[in-house]
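Comment thread on ticket #2218

A.B. wrote:
> Attaching the input chain for the structure job we discussed in standup.
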Amino acid sequence: MASRYVDIEAADGGRFSAYMTGPPGHKVPGVVVIQEIFGINSFVREFAERLASIGYLAVVPDLFWRQQPGIDITDKSEAEWNQAFKLYQGFDEALGIADLAAAIDFVRGQADCTGKVGCAGFCLGGMLAYVTAARTDVDCGVGYYGVGIEGALDEAANISKPLMLHIAGNDSYCAAEAQARIAQGLGGHPQVTLHSYAGMEHAFARIGGEHFDTQAAARADGRTLEFLNAHLT
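C.D. wrote:
> Ran it. Output below, let me know if you need it in another format.
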């Protein structure tokens, strides 16, 4: 795969970096991969590379650039968790969505992109994938265990393109009541597909994480790839 960091122009000025990877010499659909609270770390880069290996141009924008550019941390230490939560608390969602819209436009403008662009995000990125589906012209979106969706169900009326959400049944950041609200608010939406994973904790698809589950992650990833192929190729 051809991988490198690129610069993207923000709508309100300034430039932010993004990790880009894709099959060289091929015109392919694009996917904007939306980070967790740990920045552009090895997990999201590897997910992007997996997408590239099956024929997608994947771009992972740095959404924390306004606070501290170049965040690349893990979930392995208390200090990193503290840093990640501080960045999360300081994150401006509206500006983040504007940056994702800029990233979508950037990918569409690449000579080796077909013009079809989806998004896929985890945790913070799962929530942002949901909002991106409501506020931008992304062609489809996938969210893994998004945090806070139950508080943004009024956005659902604006979703006009396909969206898939993976919900962890035992998610400590999305309690049973919140999951019920999501099911009630989105279950009948013609563009939304919900998948629940019974007994799974938050971040069950984060390879190497405390709650990683091989079978559930493989099931979710398989559904994601099938969904992206259906709507982008």
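A.B. wrote:
> Thanks. Noting for the ticket: The chain has a mean pLDDT of 97.
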